Amino acid sequence: RREPLALINLKKKHEETGEEELASRLDHCKAKATRHIFLIRHSQYHLDGRADKDRTLTPLGREQAELTGRRLASLGLKFDQIIHSSMTRATETTEIISKHLPGVKKISTDLLREGAPIEPDPPVSHWKPEAVQYYEDGARIEAAFRNFIHRADAKQEEDSYEIFVCHANVIRYIVCRALQFPPEGWLRLSLNNGSITHLVIRPNGRVALRTLGDTGFMPPDKITRT
């Protein structure tokens, strides 16, 4: 719904200057800037926590977040904001990363919380959530995709660089949707803790994947997936 033709009311087209006016209005609605989306998977956390508040980062997880923060800072980009899942492990990862990016505002959202986005195809035997989860989580994660992954607003003049700190399932689903791949294939992708996935959204709405799950900036003994 950000295609220029969808943003104007064709019924209001002036009868005399029709084509010229339409071209002018279309041009006014065209995006000018490129959006750079950095999707960060949270660091390693304590899997034995009974509630979300108990699933805090492990000492290794905190090291991973430091390494990710340093990597992002080293890119020399002017980041606009950090949007993160409200779950504990994502919030803690964000706090550590943000120390390396002073002045970048942080926004928490429930939309990016972990969940079951869509039933995977082919199915897997090691992970079978209740069917209701796909309906509850799937609608929310799809809403996150529609809310955050889109071309720049026509009013945006400069390219933007945004960080999203969330979870493996959410990132994998978003990547499939953004690239127009069958979303049921999300579980075929694998992401390390603290990894960086870089999507680029051009003004015409085309999406490119620059990196998927990059952890090349971490020493091998610091890399985990759980």
TrEMBL record:
This protein's UniProt keywords: Hydrolase, Membrane, Mitochondrion, Mitochondrion outer membrane, Necrosis
Molecular function GO labels: protein serine/threonine phosphatase activity
Reactions performed catalytically: O-phospho-L-threonyl-[protein] + H2O = L-threonyl-[protein] + phosphate; O-phospho-L-seryl-[protein] + H2O = L-seryl-[protein] + phosphate
SUPFAM superfamilies: Phosphoglycerate mutase-like
Main localisation: mitochondrion
BP GO terms, sorted: positive regulation of mitochondrial fission; programmed cell death
CDD domains: HP_PGM_like
Gene3D superfamilies per record: Phosphoglycerate mutase-like
Pfam families (UniProt xref): His_Phos_1
Presence of keyword Membrane: yes
Top-level class of the enzyme under EC nomenclature: hydrolase
Cellular component, GO annotation: mitochondrial outer membrane
E.C. no: 3.1.3.16
Subcellular location: Mitochondrion outer membrane
PANTHER family referenced in this protein's UniProt entry, alphabetically: PHOSPHOGLYCERATE MUTASE-RELATED, SERINE_THREONINE-PROTEIN PHOSPHATASE PGAM5, MITOCHONDRIAL
Assigned protein family: Belongs to the phosphoglycerate mutase family. BPG-dependent PGAM subfamily.
Protein name per its UniProtKB record: Serine/threonine-protein phosphatase PGAM5, mitochondrial
Taxonomic lineage of the native organism: Eukaryota, Metazoa, Chordata, Craniata, Vertebrata
